[in-house]
Prior knowledge:
This protein is an alpha/beta fold.
Amino acid sequence: MSDxxxxxxxxxxxxxxxxxYAAAGCxxxxxxxxxLIVKAGYRExxxxxxxxxxxxxxxxxxxxxxxxxxxxxxxxxxxxLAVAWTNPSGELDHPACHFLFDxxxxxxxxxxxxxxxxxxxxxxxxxxxxxxxxxxxxSLRLSAGLAARADGRTRVVTSPVSGx
Length: 164
């Protein structure tokens, strides 16, 4: 009889791996540099247009879908600006990975159609105001996304707090 541990089956090994929540968001600005943010009634802070990645779609497809679902705007997500990682917390029992995509610049008078029962409000916020309204996790993503837009280099950031 061997003293070495028994090998796990593939199913046991897969079950032992850390699960990760995946989400994608949209960085959209107007010609004055203001950021489009939205407010859900069930969250303390404002957020980017975006949401969790559905089965069968990739993060870029998620951002494109969420843009349409949350605003009525039909536009394909552009370049990846930032990837944000958050460790498990009291809010989330698994790590989260959030992808922030560039959705470019839209006129501030672009019609926005919010989904009833999901989002309560939207606004074009100056960057300093958006940083405050988004809260610590999302403001880190905004700073990283704006820096990536400026120099063309995708950022990877780790947030000390969740904010999926």
